[in-house]
Structure formats: structure tokens, C-alpha cells
């Protein structure tokens, strides 16, 4: 997937989530532990959103590319984000969601890990 396609998928996901009432905290947060595609706020809950895009499902759907190893990296980067923003991971409501985009079909999976 090209950088342009990845950015377009993240733009689409971000737009969709804003329409659902979430507010944007940041995009493309990078740390030595990994990268967070989108971080949003849903009420009191800080939400890390992993965006996966597949143009075709010939080699699998977008959601199939969110592996246990990938979730581990997301959790580690998310914890670093929280500490970097003076948020206590044990007392802050948290959630990890996935936006899976297969072609033009967008699916929002909440609280996956």
C-alpha cells in the first residue's frame, strides 16, 4: 500500500469517527515503541484507532491484518502516548478500536484489545 493510499484511508476513518461524535486528539503519533494511527476521545475515554485498508480481499480482509503481535505493539505505543500526555493508564478510561476498510466498505470494531 502506498503512503498516499494509507493517508487517504486514515482521512476517511478520521472523518467517519468525527461524524460519530468523537474528537481528535492526534494523528500519526510516533514513538520508539511504534506508531498510533489516530488517537481520539469518546466522552471520557481515550481511544486508540488502528486503521487497516485493503483494496481487495484476495489476500485477506483488512481486519485479518490486525494480529496479536500488532496489538501488542499498539498497546505499548498507546501506553507511551498516555504517559507522554500526563495521563495515568490505570485511572484513565481507555479503548483500542480498529477501522477496517475493504475497498469502499468501512467497519468500526470497538474495544478489540
What does this structure look like?
The chain has helices at residues 3-19, 68-84; strands at 23-31, 34-42, 45-54, 94-102, 105-109. A 5-stranded mixed beta sheet has the order 1-2-3-4-5. With 113 residues, the chain is an alpha+beta fold. Strand 1 and strand 2 form a beta hairpin. It is globular, with a radius of gyration of 14 Å. It has a single domain, classed as Trna Endonuclease, Chain: A, domain 1 (3-Layer(aba) Sandwich), CATH 3.40.1350.10. The protein contains 2 helices and 5 strands. The mean pLDDT is 88. Helix content is 30%, strand content 37%.
- The number of distinct structural domains comes to 1
Could you give the order of the helices and strands?
Answer: HEEEHEE
Q: In one word, what is the shape?
A: globular
Distance between the termini: 25 Å
Percent in helix: 25-40%
Mean pLDDT: 88
Question: What structural class do helix, strand and pairing data support?
Answer: alpha+beta
- Report the CATH architecture: 3-Layer(aba) Sandwich
Supply the CATH class: Alpha Beta
The amount of beta strand, in percent, is 35-45%
Which fold name corresponds to the CATH topology? Answer: Trna Endonuclease, Chain: A, domain 1
**Counting H and I runs of at least 4 residues, what is the number of helices?**
2
Unreliable sequence segments: none
Biggest sheet: strands side by side, in what order? 1-2-3-4-5
Radius of gyration: 14 Å
Amino acid at each position: 500500500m502506498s503512503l498516499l493510499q494509507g493517508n487517504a484511508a486514515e482521512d476517511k476513518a478520521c472523518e467517519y469517527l468525527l461524524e460519530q461524535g468523537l474528537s481528535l486528539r492526534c494523528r500519526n503519533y510516533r514513538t520508539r515503541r511504534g506508531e498510533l494511527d489516530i488517537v481520539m476521545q469518546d466522552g471520557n475515554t481515550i481511544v486508540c484507532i488502528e486503521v487497516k485498508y485493503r483494496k481487495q480481499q484476495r489476500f485477506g480482509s483488512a481486519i485479518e491484518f490486525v494480529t496479536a503481535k500488532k496489538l501488542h505493539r499498539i498497546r505499548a505505543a498507546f501506553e507511551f502516548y498516555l504517559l507522554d500526555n500526563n495521563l495515568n493508564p490505570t485511572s484513565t478510561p481507555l479503548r483500542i478500536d480498529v477501522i477496517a476498510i475493504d475497498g469502499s466498505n468501512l467497519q468500526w470494531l470497538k474495544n478489540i484489545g
